[in-house]
Design a protein that fits this description.
There is one protein chain. With about 160 residues, the chain is α+β, with helices and mostly antiparallel strands. It folds into two domains: about 70 residues, Roll (Ubiquitin-like (UB roll)), CATH 3.10.20; about 80 residues, DNA polymerase, domain 1. The chain is built from five helices and five strands, in the order ββαβββαααα. Strands 2-1-5-3-4 form a five-stranded mixed sheet. It is globular and about 45 Å long. The model has no long low-confidence stretch (mean pLDDT about 80).
């Protein structure tokens, strides 16, 4: 089947089997994930929803916008998250930053003020040498505050 979608703002038409994943559809040939979603390195945005690219069928992308970590910098939320990550020291880890940013996007898309239970539930997946739950949760709280101030017209 041919999947028509936009990836990071670029319109594409890609031939793929329906059972292939989004990662297969948008991948650049490099293996990025564990293939079961537990590493979170396959996180992408499908429309406004963050999904596991290795677990989401390619056909779901038909007619949608996919945003990879490379396309995030066009969104104002990205700057909120990155400012918060720099404040707590998470922005220094280049290899994990993209999936942490998308995980933060996911949490922030669920609520203007993320519930502690949601933070704990999703941060339990952090499993790399550059980040820890406490710093990540603190960064998400800071980003949420920055977003609220931006959305409500405060500087």
């Amino acid at each position: 089947m041919i999947v028509h979608c936009r990836v990071d703002g670029v319109t594409t038409a890609t031939e793929t089997a329906p059972e292939h994943s989004l990662m297969h559809l948008i991948g650049d040939g490099q293996e990025r994930s564990c293939r079961d979603g537990s590493c979170l390195r396959c996180l992408v945005m499908l429309g406004e929803r963050v999904v596991l690219g290795c677990k989401t069928p390619a056909y779901r992308a038909q007619g949608t916008e996919i945003t990879t970590p490379n396309g995030l910098d066009q969104r104002p939320e990205y700057h909120d998250v990155m400012k918060a990550f720099r404040k707590v020291g998470l922005a220094e880890c280049v290899e994990t930053e993209p999936y942490l940013v998308l995980l933060a996007f996911h949490i922030l898309s669920e609520s203007e003020t993320p519930a502690e239970s949601a933070l704990h539930n999703l941060s339990r997946h952090l499993n790399d040498r550059c980040s820890n739950r406490e710093d990540f949760e603190r960064a998400v709280r800071i980003a949420a505050g920055l977003r609220r101030r931006r959305d409500h017209g405060h500087s």
